[in-house]
Amino acid sequence: MTVPSNSITLLYADDIVFISSSAASLQTQLDTLNNWSRRWRLNVNIDKTKVLHVRKATVARSEFVFKIGDKIVDYTSQYRYLGLTVSETLDYNISVNELITGSSRALGSLVSKYYSTDGFDYDTYTKLFESTVAPIMTYCAGVWGFKAYEGLDKLQNRAIRSFLGVGKFTPIPGMTGEMAWIPVSIRNHCQMIKLWCRIVNMHSERLPSRIYAWDCSFSRNHKDTWYNNIKSIMNESGLDTLFNSKCTDGLSTKFISNFAKDMLMQKYQITWEKAVEAMPKLRTYRDLNTTYSVQPYLKSGISRHERSAIARLRCGVFPLEIEKGRYRGVPADRRLCKVCRTGSVEDEKHFLLHCPTYSLQRNRMFMDCQQRYNCNFDNMSDMDKFKFLLSAGVKIVSKFITNISDIRTQTLMRKN
Ligand SMILES: [Zn+2]
């Protein structure tokens, strides 16, 4: 087949895509296809053949009538090509929404397995998420990944919430800081850097390389372009010299994207710290976790229910009076413990360290810990004890927490 020189043909398995800058030359491509398929007695499936007029939203769709032989080819507003939906205005929200639907289904299946097996450990859950859900979330992110897409963040937060066993009102910086997964935006930006590496290593005659060169000159007068976006990401990642050199300088793509990831994660730590600082619910959390890193209790062999109790206490969403009173507008110093009725505010420290209702269980737990782990609690401050209980992920402690939670629920039920 010979096609006009100002047009492009993409062939993949039994798919053909013609790209052209004018309606007339696209029609010439279709005529060439028609002649070729008649010669070889092949039929083009007209129902699956569509014209996509890619343009700005303010420009009207072309009225040119395209034909293959005597059959009219219909226009479409979006087309799915190699798994990615491309819209006529290149609105990637449409593409990403489809990926969200797909990854949400994959997450549903991961979470149902998580429940049916009564929970995986942190490493298994993370590995399964990274290999079954994240690849769908980042499909083609090298192209569309610059912007933030709320739906993707929500999806990742849903995965984190299911693992921690916390409710939907849990402050997001709290729960994300426990797991320390790579944030969606950084994962996407690294995908863009990987695509950049592939393009600059390509022969300059290849289509992506030609588009990149065109986009580079187009970007002198236009702001929101892929070229400008990747430039700002690489600048942010400390890779501006490499970007300006227009080559990977003998470095592997993996090395470059890992370098960018580390750099972006360091900067993210500061953003995250500010977010934690700004949330009143995370009052306890600030004492327990100051870095965006996997928390040791998640890596210990505690059960799903134990993990949930600890995570809720740490994130300030365990239903103690200090938290419930906030919603009823009770002043903080009047949110008193209804279990012991000693006039103490029922906060996390009262519940774990001081409430006399659980003295028996508490003393036994401290004795067990002392014997088994050689911990000396006598010299520990309340804050150190508190940190130990909610951070170490020791089985005896997590059993104690779930045990006193049950006692608390039963006591309150009886009193009501
Ligand atoms: Zn109490």
TrEMBL record:
<feature type="domain" description="Reverse transcriptase">
    <location>
        <begin position="1"/>
        <end position="86"/>
    </location>
</feature>
<dbReference type="Pfam" id="PF00078">
    <property type="entry name" value="RVT_1"/>
</dbReference>
<dbReference type="InterPro" id="IPR000477">
    <property type="entry name" value="RT_dom"/>
</dbReference>
<protein>
    <recommendedName>
        <fullName>Reverse transcriptase domain-containing protein</fullName>
    </recommendedName>
</protein>
<dbReference type="InterPro" id="IPR043502">
    <property type="entry name" value="DNA/RNA_pol_sf"/>
</dbReference>
